[in-house]
Prior knowledge:
By secondary structure, the chain is an alpha/beta fold. Helices cover about 35% and strands about 20% of the residues. A hairpin with a 2-residue loop joins strand 3 and strand 4.
Amino acid sequence: MSATAIHLTVAEGKRLIAKAVAALPEVRSALSSGLIVVCKGSTNAYIVEELTGRTIDKATYLTGNTQPARGARPLTKERIPELVLRDGTPVEGLTAVEAAAELKRGDVLMKGANALSPDRRMAGVLVGDPTGGTVGKTAGHVIGKGVAQLIPVGLEKTVAGNLWETAARVNCAIATAGHIPRMWVSQGRIITEVEALSILTGACATPMAAGGINGAEGAVWLLIEGSEEQVARALTVADGVYGEPPIAGA
Length: 250
């Protein structure tokens, strides 16, 4: 048994997760024969790059997002269409919601999250659209058809408590504070930096600390354990994502 520790910034974690998602057998299978729907989101923007091999302005692949209340540099106003792949080829003019109607078993839908409870294997999405947003309009197809839903989400989204209880409180509070977003507790396979390292290297990762300064705000420390070969692979994979720039305004 061998062990080491690494730390990843939020952006480095997103790139790591994206590489792991692109390597999943179910994703590779759907790329060969099937439908892949990549809903908009910051981590999913990295997944778009990993699946297509092209670089995008990741700020153009966002919908709702959290920025400083004051002093944030404006993001690119342009928005690009959601990525829908049929047999590995982009489908033009088809939104994630429209594509959901065509999903079948063996296909994959990817939707990120705004809240994460790793110990409970729970993820939540903030919803500003009164009709349920993307998650509300796709969940029925995903669950009803047995479609694989992936939830790529970084450990920086970790919040305390039971998300079902939190969602109940948030959604009940709307009656007296209508301006707050609703919360939807998602169902699917959660992939954080922990799962990403397991997928890519076979090593076991354990979150051991978080936070930082000078660009490492929101960073996560991970204890890496496994065989010498697995730990070596983990260090190589980490080295490959170090220096990933954050999504930032102009």
